[in-house]
Amino acid sequence: MDFAQTQFRLPPFRRGFHLVTQEIEKAVPEMADFDIGIFQLFILHTSASLTLNENCDPDVRQDMETAINHVVPESLPYVHTCEGPDDMPAHVKSSLMGASLSIPITDGRLKLGTWQGIYLCEHRNRASGRQLVATIMGQKK
Fold first, then answer.
1. Residue 100 DSSP SS3
2. Contact of 16 with 123, CB cutoff 8 Å
3. Angle between the 58-71 and 87-97 helix axes, to the nearest 10 degrees?
4. pLDDT score, position 17
């Protein structure tokens, strides 16, 4: 079994759900060295998250933002408010959506479904760039 690990930064994104599959593939070129394996992606933040979903129609990303805001509104009587009204809801959304993904690698590429892409779920109104760690476990070519 072979391993590779890379830490990288995505640039700042506005609040919402953003398709970042290509940015991630560019940040982890060593994936091409693996014949088969698992790509594990982890975000090093508590107010943003990762998920897999529709990679074609941008309306899905808007609807995901609408739905998560409905599930976790900013209007609840949160106690942790020192970082602004979007902070505590961002923590809840991050916990609900998740901080990591595991995706198979086949022939040096992510084995995503036809309509699947990796989303950065940015839950803050004014976030900075986000740090991620990609770990590959598998068999090199």
1. strand
2. no
3. 110
4. 98
